[in-house]
Write a structure and sequence with these properties.
CATH class: Alpha Beta
CATH superfamily: Carbon-nitrogen hydrolase
Radius of gyration: 18 Å
Number of helices: 7
Strand content: 25-35%
CATH architecture: 4-Layer Sandwich
Mean pLDDT: 92
Strand order of the largest sheet: 1-9-10-11-12-15-16
Helix content: 25-40%
Largest sheet: 7 strands, mixed
Low-confidence stretches: 6-21
Structural class: alpha/beta
CATH topology: Nitrilase/N-carbamoyl-D-aminoacid amidohydrolase
Number of domains: 1
Length: 292
């Protein structure tokens, strides 16, 4: 497991950093219905991030494929970027610094070691615009049901590293979409304070499984879950489920957006989370698959 740390100095003093970790703060999940034009998608994401930042959100998460939902699966390969380079990553860095937010960049296509494929990558930027973490999607979606036929392995190279980010707000475990179905990934993260699941669930699987899986991840980890999603009809004919939500450690949905572009915002209360974990110390009762 990779645990990434803040690459710039934390708040001015250690005391300030500790207070930031312990106090109530807001987080936001952005919902979009991205299309094939990167510039238009970034313009919409900018608008929604501004709304979230204006609400006081300190951490803002974007959905999977927020910058490109192509007409065909190979479109993202043509638009892939090298890590640390390219217009999508420059935009993420700039907007995080401009609004002084921690930005979790859903997923973007980065170069793979395999020709014709990409890494489906979630990047995290701190409030200075510095990239501090990278997670490559581990589990690749495959579905053949009716007229729907998805096989991510045709254009994506899977990642193999569990990533947890240490921030002034606590530890955040990173995952992407289909990862949600594999609880062993979240167990491997250890005790995290928040889990982020940027997604582009299909309408078919989302209606059946999205909410129960999200709530299960929150309940079993006693962690907040931030789930930004693609939600609506796309130019390429695809329909995504949406229902972006933020869930508390007890499994309560604090805010949600069923369809369309928008933002969900909720408060994270570390003291409340600590109280729940003391009252129901399930994390300390684990005997199987405990992270080192």
């Amino acid at each position: 497991m990779i645990i990434t740390k803040h690459s710039q100095p934390l708040p001015d003093t250690l005391i300030e950093a500790q207070e930031a970790t312990q106090s109530f703060f807001r987080v936001a999940a952005v919902q979009m219905a991205s299309g094939p034009k990167v510039e238009a998608n970034l313009e919409e994401a900018t608008r929604l991030i501004e709304l979230a930042a204006a609400s006081g959100a300190r951490i803002i998460a974007l959905p999977e494929y927020f910058a490109i939902m192509g007409m065909k699966e190979t479109d993202k390969v043509a638009l892939r970027e090298h890590e640390g380079e390219g217009p999508i990553q420059r935009w993420m860095s700039d907007i995080a610094a401009r609004h002084e937010i921690w930005l979790i960049g859903g997923s973007i296509p980065l170069y793979s070691s395999m020709p014709g494929k990409v890494r489906n990558t979630c990047l995290v930027y701190d409030n200075t615009g510095t990239q501090i973490a990278r997670y490559d999607k581990i589990h690749l979606f495959n579905l053949v049901m009716g007229t729907e036929n998805f096989s991510e392995e045709r254009t994506i190279e899977a990642g193999d590293k569990v990533v947890v980010v240490k921030t002034p707000f606590g530890k955040i475990g990173l995952s992407i979409c289909y990862d949600l179905r594999f609880p062993e990934l979240y167990r491997a993260m250890g005790d995290v304070d928040m889990i982020v699941v940027p997604s582009a669930f299909t309408a078919t699987t989302g209606k059946a499984h999205w909410e129960p899986l999200m709530r299960a991840r929150a309940i079993e980890s006693l962690a907040y879950v931030i789930a930004p999603a693609q939600g609506g009809y796309h130019v390429n004919g695809r329909e995504t489920h949406g229902d972006s939500m933020i869930i508390d450690p007890w499994g309560v949905i604090l805010d949600r957006l069923p369809r369309g572009s928008g933002v969900v915002v909720a408060g994270v209360n570390p003291h409340y989370q600590e109280t729940i974990r003391k009252s129901l110390p399930a994390l300390s009762h684990r005997t199987i698959g405990i992270a080192p």
